[in-house]
Amino acid sequence: CHNIYWVNKMLKKIFKILKKIILTCFLLYGFNLIASPLGVIIPINIITIFFVTLFDVHALCGFIAIFLIAF
Questions:
Q1: Quick one: CA dihedral 58, 60, 61, 62, positive or negative?
Q2: Cα-flanking dihedrals φ and ψ of residue 41, to 5°?
Q3: Vertex 64 angle, CA 71 and 67, to 5°
Q4: Confidence tier at 1 by pLDDT (50, 70, 90)
Q5: What is the mean pLDDT of residues 56-63?
Q6: Measuring CA to CA, which residue among 25, 26, 32, 14 is closest to residue 50?
Q7: Is there a contact between 64 and 51 (Cβ–Cβ < 8 Å)?
Q8: Whole-angstrom Cα distance, residue 19 to residue 12?
Q9: What is the pLDDT of residues 15-51, one digit of tens each?
Q10: Residue 63 to residue 38: CA distance in whole angstroms
Q11: Which residues of 18-57 are buried (b: 16+ CB within 10 A; e: fewer)?
Q12: Model confidence at 2: pLDDT above 80
């Protein structure tokens, strides 16, 4: 009985992480769609998805700042 609870808890965490990754992809895509006329495009790759998933919108703002400073 305890083992089933642990598996259920792990499945919920995995689902939560996958949901956050998918929402991050949509967030990056939406930002690129809106900011593309301005010439600001953040590539959607594993690094940007990882950091935006981990640090939310703060990482997105950081990537925008790095893009504006570097280019």
A1: positive
A2: -130, 125
A3: 15
A4: low
A5: 91
A6: 25
A7: no
A8: 10
A9: 999 999 999 999 999 999 999 998 889 999 999 999 9
A10: 15
A11: eeeeeebeebbeebeeeeeeeeeebebeeebbebbbeeee
A12: no
Tokens 């930002």 correspond to 31
pTM confidence score: 0.82
Question: In the 3-class helix/strand/coil scheme, how is the chain assigned residue by residue?
Answer: CHHHHHHHHHHHHHHHHHHHHHHHHHHHHHHHHHHHHHCCCCCCCHHHHHHHHHHCHHHHHHHHHHHHHHC
Residue 3, both tokens: 């083992």
For residue 17, what are the contacts with CB-CB under 8 A and spacing of at least 6? Answer: 53
